[in-house]
Task: structure prediction
Amino acid sequence: MSGAAANATDGGRAIGAIVWKSIVWVLTGLFVLNLVLLVASVALDSLAQRWLGTWLPVGYTADWYASAWNEFQLPDVLIVTLEVVVAVLLISAALGVPAAYALARRNFPGKRLVLFLFLLPLIVPPFTYGIPLASVLYQFGLGGTLGGVVLANLVPAVPFVIFVLVPFVEQIDPRVEAAARVLGARTGPLFRHVLLPLLAPGILASLVLVLVRTIGLFDLTFLTSGPGTQTLVVALYYAVFAPGVRANQSIDAMAVVYMLASLLCLLVALRFVDPTQIVGRATRRAR
Result:
């Protein structure tokens, strides 16, 4: 009887595991199908001559992309987006790399408080601190300017670089630095020729992720940008909700441009960055 009961229990567990896996696969399939259909509908509408009450558009044309390119001033918007992204990447690297090294190597009074302050912009909703931040920038004449948009984007970007890089710094044996100093290396050459090559994977990982994050950061950019300093995501928002009559196909064409730009950045990130590597480093650090 005990053997039969054990077999029944094992059989029940096996059936339960199969049911659970089936549920997970069904839910995952429904999510992927919904996402594919959503993207496909936007892409098809951006190419549709007319699409009313039918399963597929009546005809197809690429004229809506030319219309969106001119109507929404996409060349200027793309240039502004590129300028903001490049500035945020360079400044966040210049500030984040030394800060990550200091936090990983040095113990000082109030270190936990500093880490908590750096963590706040990553866990607090951007609108919570974005509104007072925008008020301060406008008081100093930076609101609506390219510099103001860059400063606003740096608030979450620099902590992001720091928290990605700290595990990379902690994995570097301090004896490597000590040996370099014994051989006469000063701080500048030590940092350039010893630490930077070792930190290159972490720096690349953090900057690529910051690039993707900056392109899609709507809240802070929306609150601090002006008519000539809108990034692609903010310009898309205004194209949808600003007063006036606009063709849905033209707006969808702009959405496709935004999706392609984001997808390109994501592909670059997945090409050079292994997310499991970052998670693994953070896990080993926690242990």
Notes: The chain has two domains: 1-60, 63-286.
